[in-house]
Amino acid sequence: MTKDVSPAGASRSGITANGNAPSSKDYDSDSFTEVTRKKRIASIVIDAGKNATGLLEQLGKHVGAPLEGRFENGKLRVFPKSIVEHRKLQAYISDNMMRSHTFEMSHTQQLKCVIRGLPTDFDHTELMQELRGFGFDPNHISLLKNKKTNTNMPLFLVTLPKNPDNQGIFNITNIGFFRVHAEPLNKSNMPPQCYRCQEFYHHSLGFAIVHLDA
Fold this sequence. Notes:
A six-stranded antiparallel sheet has the order 1-5-6-4-7-14, with helices on one face. The chain has three helices and 14 strands. It has helices spanning 52-63, 83-95, 124-133; strands at 12-16, 32-34, 40-42, 44-47, 68-72, 75-79, 100-102, 110-116, 140-145, 152-161, 174-175, 178-179, 181-184, 207-208.
């Protein structure tokens, strides 16, 4: 779960569709609304420099239910209560060309595996076929690069849906005639950064933006 961290002393004010301040429980989780013990719905952050109350009311009408939100640093954080509401909001934001970002939800989380031992010119299509032969169906395969030298490294990043069955990819020891080692992608100590807008605490997969002046 990605935790939103705001600078110390940043001003925050809460609003709901009826103009009242949200209850104290809304401040227990900055990024997610807890629906059940195990299911949490990601919040959506929308640029809303003006009339945040009106925007929240409009979003509530679109999903057919009152929504709670919080205004912080020129942005409106909306807390959908279900996956259906979350999808409706994302569609509304896209249709109206609004700048926003969200956080990775549990049902869309990806398993990231790094495969060592293959040459940098190993064909991606062949690697995909080999992995499918083991019973895995990757979403994406990419060759990692050294950030300092911008050169290819003999490391292949494989992303798959995060589920117990796909954990078996870490048991692979051979691909073709190569002995390989599969390991989880090392987590960075830095906060997650979006490669589209360069802001922190979210990633590009959950980012939606259309420039109004384009």
